[in-house]
Prior knowledge:
- By secondary structure, the protein is of the alpha+beta class.
- 51% of the residues lie in helices and 11% in strands.
- It is built from 10 helices and 5 strands, in the order ααααααααββββαβα.
Amino acid sequence: MDTSAYLKAVVEQTTTFADWVHGRDAAAPVPTCPKWTLADLVDHVGGTQRMVAMLVGEQMTEPSRAFAGYVPGPTDSGQWRAWLSDGAAEARQAFASAVDDTQVWDPSGGAAGVPFWSRRLFGEACVHRADAAAALGMRYELAPELAVAALEDWLDTMASRGYWENRPGFADAMRGGGQTLHFHATDAPGEWVARREPDMVVLERTHAKANVVVRGPAVDLLLVISRRRPLDAASTLELRGDRALLDHWIEHVDWVTNG
């Protein structure tokens, strides 16, 4: 997927999300983000999209002004659909005004800029729609190719140098001596091997033997690896090897926002 395809999907995922949450109980708990209510989830999705739109649209190489300009969501859930739709549209417009090599700050440590943020917004929209589904009792579906792209975003972001350096707890938990985890989507092309080294997580897009292998439909891999569905509840996934290694990975690979 290229930048425009990611932003098209961001708008589509956000539209569904907005339809689901519109007019619902703002205080409803979000089981997959235990410290959040539905209002917190909406605030995060719409606020993040607007913040990234500022970063990209104004070509910021330092993020403090974008952070300071974070726009909180409306308290009235009857305004959520319009507010979320507007935020996704703002993001799409901002990316349309940039090119992939436009200099924009990002936290990856790799100066990935515009491509990083287009994929990151897409991954956010997919995973947080799963949060809304859990909170509202909705059925979550995602095309296999999109689920692979969202899982790629999750794994690549977690394995980035910036994430390692900015999350010392994660780094301490993930330091290893070459232990490997193989994630394999069976309904769309997508395979990754994560290797725990003393000073980083190395992520390779390959088929290889590993200490633990988990394989199955891409959407179920996404939900389990992103901590949106317990492994024991994902009957479609096949697990071989060191279950404790996989459990340790899932336990420690998470976001700053307890999401």
